[in-house]
Description:
The structure holds two protein chains of two kinds.
Chain A: E1 3-12, E2 20-30, E3 35-39, H1 46-54, E4 61-66, E5 69-70, E6 78-81, H2 93-98, H3 108-121, H4 137-150, E7 155-159, H5 167-184, E8 187-191, H6 195-201, E9 204-208, E10 215-220, H7 229-232, H8 236-248, H9 251-254
Chain B: H1 2-28, H2 39-52, H3 55-86, H4 88-103, H5 110-117, H6 121-145, H7 149-157, H8 162-199, H9 204-214, H10 218-246
Amino acid sequence: MALEFRNVTKTFGALGQKVVTAIEGVDFKVNKGEFVSVVGPSGCGKSTILSMTAGLYQPSSGEVLVSGEKVTKPNPHVGFMLQKDLLLPWRTIIKNVEFGLESRGVGKAERRDRAMAELERCHLAGFENQYPYQLSGGMRQRAALARTLAIDPDIILLDEPFSALDAQTKLLIQNSFAETIQEAGITTLLITHDLSEAVIMSDRVLVLSERPGTVIREMPIDLPDRAHPLKRRQMSEIHQHAAEIFALLKLDQRAT
Amino acid sequence: MTSSRNTTLVGFLILGLLLLVWEFLPPALGVPKFIIPTVSDMVLELGRMYRREHVIANTLSTAWFTLLGFLIGSTLGATIGYLLGFSRFWEKVLSPYILALQIAPKVAFAPLFIIWFGYNSIPKMLVAVLIVFFPVLVNVLAAMKTVDRDMVNLARAYSMSRWQIFIKVEFPSTLPNLMAGLRIATTLAVIGVVVGEMVGGNTGLGFLITYGGGQANAAMVFNSIVLLTLIGILLYTVLAALEERLLHYIPKKDH
């Protein structure tokens, strides 16, 4: 089991303040090599799930396990990536990819080799000595993926990594991410508000309710070509799945 | 290329025009030379200052203490700014005092420093240190508070130590603000030293200004001001060049 949430509840707010329950009784599993998406209305605690998996803070009750170990602090088994690429502007692309390896006692030469290999896998060979501002938004997100993969994590967490990209770049980057992730065989948790993105990229979609967030549906996506979202996009089943999630989230009622 | 050559050309034309106006307009209007000396008077006076007033030694002395005050003041300001940036608690406790000291006119401390340390070079350096200290501290502290939390979290998720996070994320993030603070500090350092020299002492361009003022020698005062400006420009230029090198990764806007 790559990731497991066991009846996790998280509340925020110190003594005397109004207590906000972000998520309540969240319970799910992600198998090794599986690609799972989490969708839900805004403010449903999607990012809370991510931060707890990364070990940035602890659940109020319940437990989070990564590769069977309880998460108590930031750990080397988890890599995460946000909407912002978080590339350090003063470093070249390759130095950015090496960033995560610098606290792990990896030698300089090996760091460089691993970073170079990841850049090649993410189709960024030839850009290693550029600075982030010299790259397009899509390339910067690929560089961020290379940095995330370089630490060789058991699981990667993607928090809306495509939402800042323009529509066409988004399609291409989704495709290139899906290929790279398939090739690396890495377990992935994607957090997104884009329903069709969740469906075309995943093996399974978890639908969260409004705050306090809890899993109201686990929807397996039994379709081929997970590594090729552009192909999946053509399939008619995609629209049925997306419509079903749309109904679950009661989005049509919110519109009024 | 042509446009940059044009700016230089027009710049020199304006300078030439200004000097001509300065040379010929006041005499034409009947303004006496002890009120506004002409350019040629100032050049003659500069020659006299070279022979009689040790103008080179005085300029070097002012330049040296400006540099020293700048280095000490900005090092202290940056260090304390970063330390306060580490601790929300101490920042909150100390910020009213910092604010009060920042508002207090630093040059007014000059007589106090002379009472404490005597008529030597320590007071003027201290005024420079004090005046340089705050803009650097405030810039650094503000920058530490606005470091991207997500970047810090990323470093934390990579299990970096507090020190590694500072060196690899926070310090480089604050570099643009630090450099901006230092740039302000260069010009302030000159002011600090001059005020120190004007209040007490018998060396430096500030002393020559007071001395020249006492003798109603306007040309000497003007010349000293020009030399002070040159010191400021020199320091500022060195810093701007350093900044250009350090912050090369920030894309330049083309105007």
